[in-house]
Amino acid sequence: MDLSKLKREEVKAVSDDLAEILAQTIADYEAKSGKTLQPAHIERLIINTYAYREMLVRKALNEAYRQQHPRFATGLMLDLCGDDVNTPRLEASAARCTVRFTLAASHGEPVVIPQSTQIAAGATVFQTASEGTLSPAGRTLDLEAVCTQTGVSGNGFAAGQINTLASPIDGVSAANIEVSAGGADEESDDAYRQRILLAPESFSVAGPVGAYEYFARRVNPVICDVHVGNLKTAGGEPVGGRVRVTVLTKNGLPSPELIGEVQRALSDERVRPLCDTVSVAAPSVIDYTLDAELTLFTGADAAEVLAAAKQAWADYEASRREKLGADIVPLDIQTALKAAGVYNVVLKSPALTVVQPDQWARCTSVNIRISPETAEG
């Protein structure tokens, strides 16, 4: 049995069907009293109340039973399941970026940039993770900077936006050279559950795929999918001992700082088997565009149908956005777009595309329109 397809409501310790409880209670009362109950009997009304309350108790019991298992546990109970396998929930992480410090041409003396030097973009503040020195021989210095606030607030600052030194340094200017990224809120139940189920893989010292995935996901809650494989030769043959880990984030491609974090985590001697050489990379991107024309049933409200189709596409694309290796299948797209009132979906693009496990399919533009023709159906 594939437990990953098991539905929550199918997991029960006792039956909580109201009709079954009511029938059993009535039958028990009639057997003991020798009286046949009619719907209007006062005993029947009392039994109805009892059966309803019994159903609530059984539902609570079943829910308590489900909360013992990581596949169905939520909140604090999921944290307790994680504690059993030494896998705590990941706390919120801070955004990171690389900040370039520049020494003015007129300044001839070396200048030390201390660790925790603060650079701001409005009210959002970043601080350097290490120190460095500027000098006439090296007038630029790149240092990693970490947002002082955890969560997503530090994400998305374009290159050059983080440029205000909290404490000005004579002759020195600073600005980020890439978009800040990597900030995430506390790990969600679904992501945490996936790591708990992977945790037993980490107990092995033989370098299984699941172990590398587990340790990669442990780095930052912004990571939403991981692929583990081997580097390959020009002929497509896997190279033994050369492990390639591909990381995808909730915001899309991982930043260089996040790749570096994962690389360091997986290179730890307590994680990496001695003979493995691990490299971490962003997935290769398969860009595609959506161009679809909807033929409606005669009389359908075009504005309502178009809005429903666009929402259906947004939901479909959101379900794929955080997955690696998701093939682009026109039939699936047509099915998603066939909202109420749509007679047919004419898909101009994309074409059927097989996406490799270490690739990421990304939709770059969407054009959903209504055909001038209608159909009676």
UniProtKB/TrEMBL annotation:
It comes from Neisseria polysaccharea. InterPro entries: Barrel_Baseplate_J-like, Baseplate_assembly_J_pred, Baseplate_J-like_C, Baseplate_J_M, Phage_Baseplate_Hub. Residues 205-282 form the Baseplate J-like central domain. Residues 98-183 form the Baseplate protein J-like barrel domain. This is Baseplate J/gp47 family protein. Residues 288-368 form the Baseplate J-like C-terminal domain.
